[in-house]
Amino acid sequence: MDFSLSERQRLFQQKIHAFASSAIEPVAADLDRKELCPPEMLSALADQGLLGTFVPVELGGAGEDYVSYVAALEEISKAWASLGTILTAHNSLVCYPILRFGDEAQKRKYLPLLTRERQLGCYAFAEPGAGSDAGAIQTTATADGDGFLLNGRKLFVTNGKQARIVIVYALTDPARGRDGLSVFIVDKDSAGLSVGKVDGKLGLRGAQTVELTFRDCKVPKSSLLGGPNRGFEIARAAVESGRIDIAAQAVGIAQACLDQSVAYAKARLQFGRPIAEFEAIQWIVADMATEIEAARLLTYRAALGRARDRRDGALALQASMAKLYASEAANRAAYNAIQVFGGHGYLTDFPVERYFRDARATTLYEETSEIERLVIERELAKGSAGL
Amino acid sequence: MDFELTEDQELLKRAVREFADGEIAPGAAERDEHGRFPSELVPKLASQGLLGILVPDEYGGAGYDAIGAAIILEEIARVDAAVALLVGSHNSLCSGHILAVGTEDQKRTFLPPLARGEKLGAWALTEPGSGSDAGAMRTRATLDGGSWVIRGDKQFITQGSMAGTYVVIASTDPSLGTKGISAFIVPRETPGLNVGKIEKKLGVCASDTAALHFDDMRVPRENLLGKMNEGFKDVLGILSAARIGMAAMAVGIARGAFDEALKYARGRRQFGKPILEYEAIQWMLADMATEIDAARLLAHKAATLKDSGQPFLRTASQAKLHASEVVMRATSKAIQIHGGYGYLKDSPVERFYRDAKLCEIGEGTSEVQRMVIARDVLK
Fold it and tell me: Is the pLDDT of residue A386 over 60?
């Protein structure tokens, strides 16, 4: 057993930590209020190797492993969780499926675009009537000459406004439900694809989400990813990776809550002494630190399984456990951080107010806590042991 | 980074599990019911190396590290927490203390009989008026000619009436508080070592808990364990290591409760289908399993830090705090899944539920763990 990062992983983490502290933290509150991530910030992230972190160098990526990527996501999310969301959508939901399921031509065409050429990707899965239930997707892809015609509406598309490349889930065999789903790599400029307004959200405001509408949007045959009717399998792989990402994002938010709470508790005087000297505050801090450590261990265990390209039930189990635990722990941490700050924590002047709003999303996206529990129980019943 | 057990550790886990299932589990309910100490298991535990877990081969032990000890304690606690407590306190506290600071002579004299199970070990720190607050200790050791004379009372001593070798903590200079504390090795036959009340308890009923009274107990000068007046530092080190063991024990009980609950949920049918098919039951099991894995990772991380010579106090306290609270929730849910049957003595989860509570108290209460953690985080 070895709980430490390798030298290379540690160096990458330190580099991203330094970048996040100097280039993100100082501007996070302001950008979050403006509800946007400016192009300069995206370029800065790309400079750090965060667009395509685990994509091989020969395809334009940074060539780091998935553990380094997760360590980076934690650091970025600690500074501004919205960026964690943008990176997750781009890396785990777009680059990863292309890397794993794409043919040689698709990899050579799209991955350099998404990495070296700094074009953003987005993931169009959810619909008005289909969230966790892939079988309820209604968007269709009908054969049309040398390609397909896409028709339907997609919701909650992170990066949808800025992205150049869209991963779209559509039915090629509607009679088969989720087993008739296919995935298409679509150029955002395609005729028939329109972008809706930016959603107003409780948190993660820098990561804009939009609705995408497809009306007789013609895509070539070569845009089909992984062959016909493999959509559900691809979705599972992508979301499994996405879950570990969100766990890392949650750990980052929770750690930010702890760091802020500790600093504030030492500085804030009440009844003639720092509130850090009161047991009530000490206990909050002790519980927060303990849960963060537990969440981080679960997260890195899953990340390591993913780095080793494990594809069995144990990885599904570990990813869901990490996501469930870390997201719930982040919400407790954010709640308690505001409690440590008292009324000041309720003001937008302090970052804990933002952490509280951002943390809330982590129990919802890349599957809700309720779905994570179903996955965990399913794997346990099958005998996929955790350890 | 690697979260898997090594092949040797897997083998150890499997061997201890087999031994625990075959030898320990069958009598667990009966011993618990009658509060009967598992004397018949002592030679068997010894033959498996489980009474010399940390003791190196040269002193007759099995020479495992902290991770090995955690694996062993988890597997035993999965079927019987009282036996896990015996094994944990014997190894981590008594033998562990002698091993950590004993002289070569002391190790050669006292460790082999402990490792072979000829003598059980006890560790006497707690007093009626001093639990977590070791500075309030009243037991006094004074030098009189060639020997120490020890007077005082100890409370909550595991193996208190059954041990052959005791490590006794006493004040050698009360004016110095915690800086005037020392440890002594005391053989059972020492005149003046009197066993007091044998306690009845909520859980771990087969474990032996007794009060000790030292009435002008004379101990040879060379039985001072560690440096005079520096015992407190040693005690903290021993307790921190033992917390990892207590965390592993909590994980073991929780795992036992989980396994029983899953088995029951598969077999129990209500409204025409196994209750495992209801989300209400699935969620309880999912939460139990997630928390158990988290607790185990914390325990193993603390053990790994200790084994590699890195600071481990905060992580050990986090592991113990988290695991003990997890086992309380897990055993409670296990009873809930069993319904009324879980409330009956016929079901092992009834015992697990009572045993679990010890984990929030022994080797420092949850409140003390939070103090330790907060002090470190806020420093």
Answer: no
CA B200 to chain centre: 18
pLDDT score of A245 more than 50: yes
The pLDDT of residue A138 is above 70: yes
The owner of tokens 């320990």 is B24
CA distances from B368 to B156, B221, B240, B317 (A): 17, 34, 12, 9
CA nearest A220: which of A195, A193, A185? A185
As a whole-number percent, the residues of chain A with pLDDT over 90 amount to 96
Q: B75, B297, B306: best mutation site toward chain A, by most A Cβ within 10 Å?
A: B297
Residue B120 reports pLDDT greater than 80? yes
pLDDT digits (tens, 9 = 90+) for A171-225: 999 999 999 999 999 999 999 999 999 999 999 999 999 999 999 999 999 999 9
Residue B293: its chain A contacts at CB < 8 A?
298, 318, 321, 386-387
Closest Cβ–Cβ partner in A5, A279, A290 for B321: A290
**Per the CB < 8 Å rule, is A381 touching B373?**
no
Catalytic residue, from A366, A367, A372, A379: name it. A366
Q: Which helix (H) or strand (E) holds B236?
A: helix B231-267
> Does B289 touch chain A if contact means CB atoms closer than 8 Å?
yes
Closest by alpha carbon to A124, among A90, A168, A86? A168
A366 given a catalytic annotation: yes
Residue A387 has pLDDT above 80, yes or no: no
* The pLDDT of residue B74 is above 50: yes
Q: How many CA atoms lie within 13 A of B332 on its CB side?
A: 8
The answer to whether B231 and B214 are in contact (CB under 8 A) is no
**What is the helix, strand, coil percentage profile of chain B, to 5?**
60, 15, 25
Cβ(B183)–Cβ(B225) below 8 Å: yes
The closest of B245, B256, B249, B209 to B351, measured between CA atoms, is: B256
CB contact set of B9 (below 8 Å; sequence gap of 6+): A1, B67, B68, B71
Residue A132 in contact with partner chain B when CB distance is under 8 A: no
Distance CA B132, CA B137 (A): 10
Residue whose C-alpha is closest to residue B279's, from B291, B265, B292, B289: B265
Q: Which residues pair with B170 in a beta bridge?
A: B182
Mark yes or no for CB contact B298/A293 under 8 Å. yes
Contacts of B1 in chain A (CB under 8 A): 2-6, 9, 67, 300, 304
Three-class secondary structure of residue A367 per DSSP: coil
Beta bridge partners of B219: B148
Average pLDDT for residues B8-35, to the nearest whole number?
98
Q: How far is B253 from B259, CA to CA, in rounded Å?
A: 10
Cβ of A298 within 8 Å of Cβ of B290? The answer is yes
Residue B131: the pLDDT is 80
Q: What is the pLDDT of residue A82?
A: 98
Q: Check residue A385 and give its pLDDT.
A: 65
Burial A288-319, CB ≥16 within 10 A → b, else e: bbbbbbbbbbbbbbbbbbbbeeeeebbbbbbb
Q: How does pLDDT run across B344-376, given as a tens digit for each residue?
A: 999 999 999 999 999 999 999 999 999 999 999
Cβ contact B330:B258 at 8 Å: yes
Chain B residues touching residue A258 (CB < 8 angstroms):
377
Instruction: Choose among A289, A325, A372: nearest Cβ to B318.
Output: A289
Instruction: Round the CA-based radius of gyration of chain A to a whole number and report it.
Output: 21
